[in-house]
Amino acid sequence: MWLQTHFSLSPKSRGFHLVTDEVVSQLPHLARVKTGLLHLLLQHTSASLTLNENCDPTVRSDMEQHFLRYVPENAPYEHDYEGRDDMPAHIKSSLLGVSLCLPVSRGKLQLGTWQGIWLGEHRIRGGARRIVATLQGEEE
């Protein structure tokens, strides 16, 4: 079975957001997969997808503080006509990446106990973010 769908994540403020439930809710066919893979592609250059801590929200705020320090908005970037936060957002997106490939078993993502899907929103006002989800696998 192969299935591809497009959906949008709701707009988020700048920072890191746990979006596992929001993603899974957009994938009703996931429940039919006995063994397979889910590939997620975020169709943006100023946000990112990553796996990380799904329990303690201070990890997300610490991550945001780290990136604000190490990829500052006030550096002398040439690409600045879309705002001070745009070029730093591109850098963060490239560092973290825009895709995930996740195993599926018995209708569920096979994430570690403390793992969740994060959206890294790197713009102050990034808006809704589009994802292409490709699900492949053996059906129940």
- What gross morphology would you assign? elongated
Rg over C-alpha atoms, rounded to the nearest angstrom: 16 Å
**What's the order of the H and E elements?**
EEHEEHHEEEE
Low-confidence stretches: none
User: What is the tally of beta strands?
Assistant: 8
Strand content: 35-45%
Mean pLDDT: 97
Structural classification: alpha+beta
Distance between the termini: 11 Å
Give helix % range: 10-25%
Supply the number of helical segments. 3
Instruction: Give the spatial strand order of the biggest sheet.
Output: 1-8-3-5-6
Question: Could you characterize what this model shows?
Answer:
This protein is an alpha+beta fold and 140 residues long. 22% of the residues lie in helices and 44% in strands. The protein is built from three helices and eight strands, in the order E-E-H-E-E-H-H-E-E-E-E. The strands form two sheets. A five-stranded antiparallel sheet has the order 1-8-3-5-6, with no helix packed on it. Strand 5 and strand 6 (108-109) form a beta hairpin. The termini are close together.
List keywords for this structure.
five-stranded antiparallel sheet, 140 residues, three-stranded antiparallel sheet
Please write out the topology.
Elements: E1 2-9, E2 13-18, H1 20-25, E3 33-42, E4 47-53, H2 57-70, H3 86-96, E5 99-105, E6 108-109, E7 115-125, E8 129-139
Antiparallel strand pairs: 1-8, 2-7, 3-5, 3-8, 4-7, 5-6
Provide a concise account of the structure shown.
The protein is of the alpha+beta class.
